[in-house]
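Run TetR/AcrR family transcriptional regulator through structure prediction, thanks.
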Amino acid sequence: MARRRSPSPPPPLAPSLRSDARRNRELVLQAARSAFEEAGLAVPLGEIARRAGVGTGTVYRHFPSKEALFRATVVDRVRLFTDTARELAHADDPGAVFFRYLSAVVRLSVRNKGLCDALEGSLEPSPGVEEGFREALTVLLERAQQAAAVRKDVTIDDVMALLMGCLSMEQRRGPAVAPGRMTALLCDSLRPGRHVTKLPQNPAVRRNETGCAACGGPVRVSRTGRPARYCGGACRQRAHRERARARTGT
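Sure, done. The structure for TetR/AcrR family transcriptional regulator is below.
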């Protein structure tokens, strides 16, 4: 009995077909970048295909969904923010570095609706990318706090929420408002100083801690005796000097 031959593998794609596929994929990516930049995730996939000059089926052959196409267009930009933050992790003057970095992220993102959507978490661009950005920004925040350039009661969740709010405000500012004004207000809200508003205690903070009356940092409550108001001697002395100046009017 003659042995049945196994089916031969399909012939490889011709070089011209492979080059056409690569060209179509790049056209789709270019069209998607501009479309997502203008409208974010709300842009229809058919509009992207129209801008690329290809059919919707061609888009699906390269990207199984609009979400996958979105990830491909913004993941590199979010990673660029993350890589930049990591490069600045040991830079001198951590306070100035932190504020310049926040300002740069807002300035580079505010005109890109897709990037704003990615940073806001409407859709994570790729597994681990948003977490990597938060971790890198956390390092800059903690170094700035150690340098006494940022309030000690500020958390990374606070910074992320303020960053998203700042992007929204910069996008919606009127023509009479100068670009970057909202960003400057954001940065000032994070700086320590006199007469700053004491933040409500974060529920995640342990119940046996309270906020320092001078700097807002955590103060461990003693089990016995009168609860402490300050995190240390320096804050206690500063509060004493301010009370003395208030009494004398100087």
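Strands lie at 209-211, 218-220.
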